[in-house]
Amino acid sequence: MFSKAESAQIRKEFWTSFGKSFPRKWLLYNTKIKGFSLKFNADRKQASVSIDIEHPDEIANELLYDQLVALKTILTSEFIPEIIYDNEFVLDSGKVIHRIYVKHEKKFSIHNKNTWRDCYEFFVENMSKLELFFYEYEDIINQAI
């Protein structure tokens, strides 16, 4: 097991290494839609890329999620077939959000450097697809609110 400090250092090294290995400006929080972001997620057991919807206005939050549900056929048929829609995803903090995500299916732990390269390649491939989807349907998504 790792101490909190060691674990924090490994996480920092993981993300720094990813940035150096794949230097690119990602869209992530710069969607210009409040409460709508693309994210990389990695922890001790799994990794994923996601669209997180956590608009502070409950109605806008639901409208954004419903708009993405309406686009589900396109997202699954043209971009990422194995994408998962979760209407009530619970974050580690206990907060419940809408998350649309794809999991890294290979064995992964942020604490195991031997699993990092596969994860990085998964990140690049799938985040690129989510970004393409977003850019293609940004106007439609934005119309929800």
Can you summarize the main beta sheet?
A: 4 strands, antiparallel
Structural class, from helix and strand content?
A: alpha+beta
Strand order of the largest sheet: 1-2-4-3
Query: How many discrete structural domains?
Result: 1
How far from one another are the termini? 46 Å
- Number of helical stretches of at least 4 residues: 4
Given as residue ranges, the uncertain stretches (5+ residues, pLDDT < 50) are none
Question: Could you give the order of the helices and strands?
Answer: HEEHHEEH
Structure description:
Residues 10-137 form the DUF4268 domain. This is DUF4268 domain-containing protein. By secondary structure, the protein is an alpha+beta fold. It has one domain. Helix content is 46%, strand content 20%. It has a four-stranded antiparallel beta sheet. A hairpin with a 5-residue loop joins strand 3 and strand 4 (96-103). The longest helix is centred in the C-terminal third of the chain and has 28 residues, at 116-143. It is globular, with a radius of gyration of 16 Å. The model has no long low-confidence stretch (mean pLDDT 96).
